[in-house]
Amino acid sequence: MLAQFINLTGIAAFVLGTFGSLLLAVKRATVSGLKIYSSPVDYFNLFFLFAIFATGLFSWIINPSLSDSRMFINGVITFKPVSVPLITALNFILFELFLIYMPFTNCFII
């Protein structure tokens, strides 16, 4: 039951995040009212998010049960290295880099 819920929310996050970040970048580039306030770093942030969500989506396409992702997280928690597909590892590496980068951005100022 929990695994099905995790799969469903993961898939929804990957799909919505991929298209949302891409469409937001397109909107910022095409709407003149937003274009004048958008700097190159804003586009970088959106494409960074796009890369995270897109690699997650491709990881799900390769492994629909997301068992590789769960195995990776379990390996991190238990300090036991595991072998996962490159796209899954890339997804986690991008996410971890974003967690380091995020406090230095202005995209989450309230």
Give a verbal description of the structure:
It is a single chain. α1 runs antiparallel to α3 (about 40-60) and α3 (about 40-60) runs antiparallel to α5 (about 85-100). About 75% of the residues lie in helices and about 0% in strands. The chain is mostly helical and about 110 residues long. It has one domain.
Brief description of this entry?
With 110 residues, the protein is an all-alpha fold. It has helices spanning 2-30, 32-35, 40-62, 67-78, 86-101.
Secondary structure layout:
Elements lengths: L1 H29 L1 H4 L4 H23 L4 H12 L7 H16 L9
Helix pairs in contact: 1-3, 3-5
| Number of β-strand runs | 0
Structural class comes to mainly alpha
Uncertain runs: none
| Rg result | 16 Å
Order of helices and strands: HHHHH
Helix content: over 70%
Residues in β-strands, percent:
under 5%
Supply the number of helical segments. Answer: 5
